[in-house]
Amino acid sequence: MARLSVSNSVIYELAAENPDMSDVDRLMNLYWALCSVVRSGTPGDVVELGCNAGRTSVLLEMVLEAEGADRTLHLYDSFDGLPAPSAADRYLKQGDCRATESDVLATFARWNLRPPRVHAGWFEETLPRHLPERVAFAYLDGDFYESIRTSLTHVWPRLSAGGSVVVDDYCDRELSPRAWDGLPGVKKACDDFFAGVPASRRVLVGVGDLAFAEFRKPAG
Predict the structure, then answer these.
(1) Which site among 98, 121, 123, 176 is 20 to 30 Å from 130 CA-CA?
(2) Which domains does the chain have, with CATH numbers?
(3) How far apart are CA 62 and CA 198, in angstroms?
(4) What number of other Cβ atoms are within 10 A of residue 3's Cβ?
(5) At the top level of its lineage, which domain of life is listed (predicted)?
(6) CB atoms inside a 10 Å sphere around CB 189
(7) What pLDDT digit, counting tens, does each position of 126-152 carry?
């Protein structure tokens, strides 16, 4: 398979296909976060928790192929939509954001990419059994408090030193005044989890309403 370059035109095309979930701000921040981990040689595979139809996932695979990285992309989703929200959650409701595994594979086929390993089921069922032994990079897009807390609980212990976790919908209006604040359970889950866990946090910004945070595991 010919190596695909992640050019600016590819980024714009991906953003145009899915502007609500994968705009240019999100894609470029993910691109550089994953590139930094791959180019530093941090060991482990790449995981995305909450992949929907895979229209952001394809960027992660493009980076791996463009960088010649011998790593596997693992995707996790219930494919039954979101679970029931907790008291910390709002905006979305149970069953929203439903997609199918076939949708994911069709997205990858359309871009002529190597298919990922897809793990269907609720995070509390799939993550204990199907996470790779070592994770270099994780993208968490679970939307709700319990989904993000469960994701961190299982991913962080397997994250390699120097590895990166990027969390979507983490809104810190003090550090990123334009950030979208529709899913407050995400930040609460992260803040609760990292209250006693050593990590460096970086709130990412964009020209729009990007709500992203990156958490790095200490290198040594």
Answers:
(1) 98
(2) 8-216 (3.40.50.150)
(3) 31
(4) 9
(5) Bacteria
(6) 28
(7) 999 999 999 999 999 999 999 999 999
